[in-house]
């Protein structure tokens, strides 16, 4: 029998559910940024109280601050199954992807190389790669199906056929379509063709931190503020790829992988607070009897999160699919998608999100920087989509409240 997530325990880990400001609304804006867990809040608070000095210096506060930064990198790396040197922090995923693209620009300059991008991506994992055409690098687009929003792996195979593609950039799942792409299969196909892979995990990682060795990608990027943490971007960059790329930081830091592609000084307090995300995963594992090493605990917690999300979001998908005045974007099957649910309405979407706000529902509307996917799906950017996004701490009662509010508003 599948173990169920203890939702009371989970929600007790998030101060927001006791907040007089936030708790008045059912929260369905998780894809824009999740609530931080108390372990992260506590660590950030402690750092600002007792460690907010230049880290690693020869005195207690500096030593403690540096140790907590090291702890965050070490524990997150262990959770994701990678070496600690392969985990880099930056101000955001958009910034991290930009820096990585500049390294690839130098790496491929003057070659007869091609890269593949998709039109299913958030712009952060699309525009920076497309601009490599400025260097004469051919940019090939792996196009989504305009009826379903899906990416067909066979279409990618054709783009890889001539052996010139050196890099494939694609999402684990889109932030509006939400279908979970088969990352392991795509990476294996790219690797066989001699191409590296960069995966935008921003919209998937909130639903389970990645098991990077199983995925087989060369780079995986996601945002800590969407995975219950502080506003940081996290980049897993495998050593074989990262050390091949020209360094983007101070020349004397090029020998250390996690510094090699970090051109700006990191936010010390937020890096240290990221260890709280590992605390949270370990707390969930302990509460549910999940044992083993850090990677095994992460896998077990991932499965618990996903099972909860699939069960909770299915009634919303069924409700929306049954209406004839909305177009549900992405799969109807909850098991095939993240619980990020976008719909195309027969009216402008933002006034609907505002009306839902007056009915006790926190969500939003717009293009969510997914301009290319929406255009490919034939959706007017100015009209936008209504997006309602859940995560593992979302309750069935909150989904029922959302459905009732949609009935009133629509």
From TrEMBL:
Gene3D superfamilies: Aspartate Aminotransferase, domain 1 (3.90.1150.10), Type I PLP-dependent aspartate aminotransferase-like (Major domain) (3.40.640.10). Residues 27-402 form the Aminotransferase class V domain. Coiled coil: none annotated. The lineage of its organism: Bacteria, Pseudomonadati, Pseudomonadota, Alphaproteobacteria, Rhodobacterales. Keywords: Aminotransferase, Pyridoxal phosphate, Transferase. SUPFAM superfamilies: PLP-dependent transferases. InterPro entries: Aminotrans_V_dom, PyrdxlP-dep_Trfase, PyrdxlP-dep_Trfase_major, PyrdxlP-dep_Trfase_small. This is Aminotransferase class V-fold PLP-dependent enzyme. The keyword Transferase applies. One of its GO terms (molecular function) is transaminase activity.
């Amino acid at each position: 029998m599948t173990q169920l997530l203890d939702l009371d325990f989970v929600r007790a880990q998030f101060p927001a559910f006791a907040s007089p400001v936030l708790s008045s609304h059912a929260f369905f804006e998780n894809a824009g940024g999740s609530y931080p867990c108390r372990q992260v809040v506590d660590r950030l608070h402690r750092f600002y109280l007792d460690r907010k000095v230049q880290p690693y210096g020869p005195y207690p506060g500096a030593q403690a601050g540096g140790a907590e930064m090291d702890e965050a990198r070490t524990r997150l790396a262990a959770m994701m199954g990678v070496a600690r040197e392969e985990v880099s922090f930056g101000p955001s995923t958009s910034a991290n992807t930009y820096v990585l693209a500049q390294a690839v620009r130098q790496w491929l300059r003057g070659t007869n190389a091609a890269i593949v991008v998709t039109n299913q991506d958030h712009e952060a994992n699309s525009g920076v790669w497309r601009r490599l055409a400025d260097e004469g690098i051919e940019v090939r687009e792996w196009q989504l199906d305009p009826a379903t929003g899906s990416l067909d792996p066979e279409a990618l195979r054709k783009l890889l056929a001539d052996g010139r593609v050196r890099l494939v950039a694609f999402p684990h799942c889109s932030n509006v379509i939400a279908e979970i792409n088969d990352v392991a299969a795509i990476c294996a196909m790219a690797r066989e063709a001699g191409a590296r892979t960069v995966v935008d995990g921003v919209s998937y990682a909130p639903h389970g931190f990645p098991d990077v060795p199983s995925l087989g990608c060369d780079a995986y990027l996601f945002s800590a503020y969407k995975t219950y943490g502080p506003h940081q971007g996290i980049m897993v960059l495998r050593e074989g790829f990262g050390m091949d790329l020209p360094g983007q930081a101070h020349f004397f830091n090029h020998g250390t992988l996690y510094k090699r592609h970090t051109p700006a000084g990191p936010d010390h307090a937020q890096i240290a607070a990221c260890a709280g995300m590992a605390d949270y995963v370990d707390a969930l594992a302990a509460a549910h009897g999940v044992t083993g090493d850090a990677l095994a605990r992460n896998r077990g917690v991932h499965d618990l999160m996903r099972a909860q999300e699939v069960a909770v979001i299915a009634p919303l998908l069924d409700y929306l699919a049954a209406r004839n005045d909305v177009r549900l974007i992405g799969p109807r099957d909850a098991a095939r998608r993240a619980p990020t649910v976008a719909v195309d309405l027969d009216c402008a979407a933002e006034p609907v999100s505002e009306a839902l706000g007056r009915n006790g529902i926190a969500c939003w509307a717009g293009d969510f920087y997914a301009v290319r996917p929406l255009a490919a799906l034939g959706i007017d950017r100015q009209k936008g989509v209504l997006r309602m996004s859940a995560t593992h701490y979302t309750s069935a009662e909150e989904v029922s409240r959302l459905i009732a509010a949609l009935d009133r508003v629509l």
